[in-house]
């Protein structure tokens, strides 16, 4: 046959012998065997390079049933089963958030998804926790406050990573390292819930959850709400069950999309925590992203070749003829560009790698966003000016808010002319970072039925916000924490 | 000569709905003067199997960015992509890596 113009040489570039099964990166053909080694090695290298997971530590794997988090489970299993010297040394648990209520699944479909997921989780032998998105309605307000970092976590005041590993190995030798130090055969956590397939939440709870989602004015805000509730549920589970770390399965592709999406959402100041390997905004629970070096393609092929089970669910619901979310648009944009320019996604990713989180500022509560727990970034600038100098707030942008007196933080919070009741929408604004303000407004229909700023002679003008209006579509824990502040 | 080609579609995010929720299709492609390459196969799928919203599966004459194609369990990039000439009993798999919708 004539060689096809767009084909690659069909021998593995690594071993030079095997028949290539796939092309990695821009043009590297790998055979199955070499690909498997490459894939498995990358996981260990990622954890080894970052050195934040300590031996014996409890790590909660957040699982969605999707390809990346399922591949992540497999890598943890692989890592734990290796011979002693190279073995991963932490104690894993699993958590799955069932989101069928907002993915247009019927109760029967939700039961079926749950059953499939429970089978998948049980097969690992790790303790697992199944929770419903509806349980976000019962979250405590404390989830919006960072917990105190544990003593010795991440080598802050405790032993260094190397010391911890060495002493762990010594201890193992003393104990006669017969078996593994992790529960290889235990089933679900005794406190994880009923061992039978958990039943679905009541219809009233599902309805209440749906109200929050349906109140969202845009697909973008709805997607942000879902991610927020899910993250809070996962972190709360970790906190309750004594897990100091949470592993999320975000792939390289997903991280690159998230980077540009979050930039578009106004989260430029927080790109490092949003997409980096570690995310410490919750204090006592650290989120890590060990799959961020794997492209979606690598994950899909690995799962296909090596039989990694997945459970696929429909996407988050959208309204009839609604514009796509920013998340979807960015994904479409990046993937489309990637076709013609195959280094697009990796370039975005590598640029993101150069971002490092700012050192933690004063952790005064008044400086943290109510929703995303990041440091407020709204001092001055267009938004500071708008709320300070014009509009309904009046007053000087440089004055301090009455309730705060922290000398260390000259955060300019505009002093309102009106003193909004704690339960008014406007009272939330000073507690939110720039992008969460935008999301919040789209979640509670801040601007009423119409839209945002109608321009008058090219100058955006504030329309009167519905300052007094229903806030009851916000989850209770958010309102409670806002009131407390 | 008749071609018997097994298609297995696995989609993420509910795209099975594009194919009546059916994950695996086994088809026999009819004789025609033009060769059965992936390009023509995609046209055939669009006309005969896709129930709705073709733009979620295809873009132009190829698959939508984010959809992987495996021919006999190998990356189609190794096989010539759209130009690959289908053989009898070939197995084609489409895997979506898209994030829903």
Average pLDDT over all residues of chain B: 78
C-alpha end-to-end distance of chain B:
39 Å
Spans of chain B with pLDDT under 50 lasting ≥5 residues? 9-14
CATH architecture tag of the domain at 52-146 and 198-314 and 323-358 in chain A: 3-Layer(aba) Sandwich
Radius of gyration of chain B equals: 13 Å
Work out the radius of gyration of chain A.
Answer: 24 Å
Strand order of the largest sheet of chain B: 2-1-7-5-6
Percentage of residues in DSSP E strands of chain B:
25-35%
Bin the strand percentage of chain A.
5-15%
Question: What is the succession of H and E elements of chain B?
Answer: EEHEEEEE
Strand order in the largest sheet of chain A: 5-4-3-6-8-7
Largest interface: A-B, 39 and 27 residues
Task: Set down the secondary structure blueprint.
The complex is a heterodimer of chains A (485) and B (101).
Chain A: E1 22-24, E2 28-30, H1 32-50, E3 58-63, H2 67-81, E4 91-98, H3 107-122, E5 128-132, H4 161-174, H5 203-215, H6 219-241, E6 245-247, H7 252-264, H8 271-275, E7 278-279, E8 286-288, H9 296-305, H10 326-340, H11 344-353, H12 381-389, H13 434-443, E9 455-456, E10 459-460, H14 476-484
Parallel strand pairs in A: 3-4, 3-6, 4-5, 6-8
Antiparallel strand pairs in A: 1-2, 7-8, 9-10
Helix pairs in contact in A: 2-9, 6-13, 7-10, 7-11
Chain B: E1 3-10, E2 24-29, H1 38-48, E3 58-59, E4 62-63, E5 67-71, E6 74-75, E7 91-96
Parallel strand pairs in B: 1-7
Antiparallel strand pairs in B: 1-2, 3-4, 5-6, 5-7
Characterize the structure shown.
- Chain A: InterPro entries: CTU2, Rossmann-like_a/b/a_fold.
- Chain A: Pfam families: CTU2.
- Chain A: This is CTU2 protein.
- Chain A: GO terms for molecular function: sulfurtransferase activity; tRNA binding.
- The complex is a heterodimer of chains A (485) and B (101).
- Chain A is of the alpha/beta class and 485 residues long.
- Among the domains of chain A are: 38 residues, no CATH class; 248 residues, HUPs (Rossmann fold), CATH 3.40.50.620.
- Chain A is globular, with a radius of gyration of 24 Å.
- Chain A starts with 21 loop residues before the first strand and ends with a helix.
- With 101 residues, chain B is mainly beta.
- Chain B has a single domain, classed as Roll (Ubiquitin-like (UB roll)).
- Helix content of chain B is 11%, strand content 31%.
- The longest helix of chain B is centred in the middle third of the chain and has 11 residues.
- Chain B starts with a strand and ends in a 5-residue tail after the last strand.
- About 6% of the residues of chain B have low confidence.
- At the A-B interface, helix 7, helix 9 and helix 10 of A face strand 6 of B.
């Amino acid at each position: 046959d004539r060689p096809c113009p767009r084909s690659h040489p069909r021998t593995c570039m690594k071993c030079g012998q095997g028949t290539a099964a796939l092309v990695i990166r821009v043009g590297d053909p790998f055979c199955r065997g070499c690909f498997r080694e490459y894939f498995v090695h990358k996981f260990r290298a990622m954890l080894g390079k970052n050195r934040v997971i300590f031996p014996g530590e409890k790590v909660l794997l957040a699982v969605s049933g999707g390809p990346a988090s399922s591949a992540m489970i497999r890598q943890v299993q692989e890592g734990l089963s290796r011979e002693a010297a190279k073995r991963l040394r932490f104690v894993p648990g699993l958590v799955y958030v069932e989101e069928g209520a907002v993915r247009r699944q019927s109760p029967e479909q939700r039961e079926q998804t749950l059953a499939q997921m429970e089978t998948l989780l049980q097969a690992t032998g790790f303790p697992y926790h199944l929770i419903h998105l509806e349980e976000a309605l019962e979250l405590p307000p404390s989830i919006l406050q960072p917990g105190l970092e544990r003593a010795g976590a991440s080598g802050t005041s405790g032993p260094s990573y190397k010391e911890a590993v060495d002493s762990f190995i010594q201890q193992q030798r003393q104990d006669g390292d017969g078996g593994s130090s992790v529960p290889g055969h235990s089933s679900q956590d005794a406190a994880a819930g009923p061992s039978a397939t958990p039943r679905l939440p009541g219809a009233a709870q599902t309805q209440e959850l749906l109200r929050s989602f349906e109140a969202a004015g845009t697909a973008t805000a709805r997607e942000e709400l879902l991610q927020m509730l899910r993250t809070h549920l996962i972190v709360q589970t970790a906190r309750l069950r004594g897990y100091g770390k949470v592993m999320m399965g975000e792939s390289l592709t997903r991280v690159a999309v998230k980077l540009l999406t979050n930039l578009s959402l106004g989260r430029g100041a927080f790109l490092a925590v949003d997409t980096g390997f570690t995310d410490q905004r919750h204090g006592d629970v650290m989120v890590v992203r060990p799959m961020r070096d794997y492209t979606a393609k690598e994950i899909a092929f690995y799962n296909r070749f090596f039989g990694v089970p997945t459970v696929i669910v429909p996407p988050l619901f959208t309204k009839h003829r609604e514009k796509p979310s920013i998340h979807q648009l960015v994904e479409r944009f990046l993937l489309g560009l990637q076709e013609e320019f195959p280094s697009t996604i990796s370039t975005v990713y590598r640029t993101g790698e150069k971002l490092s989180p700012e050192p933690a500022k004063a952790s005064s509560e008044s400086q943290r966003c109510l929703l995303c727990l990041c440091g407020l970034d709204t001092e001055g600038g267009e938004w500071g000016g708008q709320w300070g100098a014009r509009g309904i707030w009046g007053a000087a942008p440089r004055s301090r808010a009455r309730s705060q007196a922290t000398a260390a933080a000259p955060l300019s919070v505009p002093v309102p002319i009106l003193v909004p009741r704690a339960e008014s929408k406007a009272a939330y604004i000073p507690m939110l970072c720039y992008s969460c303000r935008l999301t919040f407004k789209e979640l509670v229909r801040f601007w009423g039925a119409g839209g945002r700023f109608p321009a008058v002679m090219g100058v955006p003008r504030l329309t009167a916000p519905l300052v007094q209006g229903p806030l009851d579509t916000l989850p209770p824990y958010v309102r409670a924490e806002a009131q407390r502040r | 000569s008749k071609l018997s080609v097994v298609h297995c579609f696995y989609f993420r995010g509910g795209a099975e709905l594009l194919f009546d929720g059916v994950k695996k299709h086994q088809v026999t492609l009819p004789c025609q003067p033009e060769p059965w390459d992936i390009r023509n196969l995609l046209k055939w799928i669009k006309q005969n199997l896709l129930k709705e919203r073709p733009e979620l599966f295809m873009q132009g004459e190829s698959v939508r960015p984010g959809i992987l194609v495996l021919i006999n369990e190998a990356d189609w990039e190794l096989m010539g992509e759209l130009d690959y000439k289908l053989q009898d009993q070939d197995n084609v798999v489409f895997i979506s890596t898209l994030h829903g919708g």
